[in-house]
Amino acid sequence: MAAPRTYLEQTSSSNLEIISIHVNDPEKNQCGRVEPTVPVDNEFDYTQRAQWLRAAVLGANDGLVSVTSLMMGVGAVKQDIKAMLLAGFAGLVAGACSMAIGEFVSVYTQRDIELAQMKRNHEKKRISERVDNMNEEEEEDIERETLPSPVQAAIASALAFSVGAVFPLIGAAFITNHKVRLGVVVAVASMALLVFGVGGAVIGKTPVVKSSARVLVGGWMAMAITFGLTKLIGSGGLLM
Question: Any transmembrane segments, and where (predicted)?
Answer without folding.
Answer: 81-101, 153-175, 182-203, 215-234
